[in-house]
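Example record used in the benchmark description.
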Amino acid sequence: MVRTFFRRSSSSSCTSINGDDEETSAFRRLVTKSKWPQLRALLLTGEGRRVVRQATALKSSSDRSILHDLLANDPPVDIVEKMIAVLDAEHFTNRDASNFNCTPLHVAVANCASFPVIKSVLMAHQNAAAIADDRGVTPLMIECSMGNACHYDTVKLLVQAVPGHVVMAEDADGQTALEYALISDAIDIFQRLQRLYARQLQKQSLQQQEERRLQAKRRQQQSVELSAVTEELHKSFSMLDGLAGLEANESRRVSRSSAAA
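Model output (structure tokens):
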């Protein structure tokens, strides 16, 4: 059964959060009411960026980040990029405690943000693709649940962000992204995701084989070097034994000479 994810809230319910000051609430209203020209103008000035930075400061790791609100409202990619330049890295992994502890990337994918927007978020924090919410749901699972609205380019982007991890990750019910695609009748996505995952496994296998080959080569080189050192030591000990023998012979010769005298 395909889940219901994080659809955008109404503007009125998003304009403020308990504890927001007036400046923060005003800024959130610009975001949640999609006032892109005003927000764009604000982000172009140093003072505006200071206001944005102050208004978006996180009080705790369970706060809803301003990125949650922004990415739920289909923002233009230039706004997202300007916001990313202003915000601290913690915003990209911040979890909304009121919404299954989802991240901004979960919200972006669930609200059908454009491919350039999702790409910008991943470029800012690549590992966001691997973060699951309280239900074990990853952004890839959400995209694969979209049925005919699922975009392979987005699927590929999410998979490549954390290779070998997200495809076979399981949610709390034991379902993978492949099963989400199958259940939502995204058959083409299911088949292409299978092939993409198979190519990744093949690539990882080749990388592992190459690493094993290099390790074997390093061990062989170390063995050769150790043998060379051992041989040098044997030569040194032989020389020392030879010198010791000469000294002993000389000592005996001196002793016999002394006795004869």
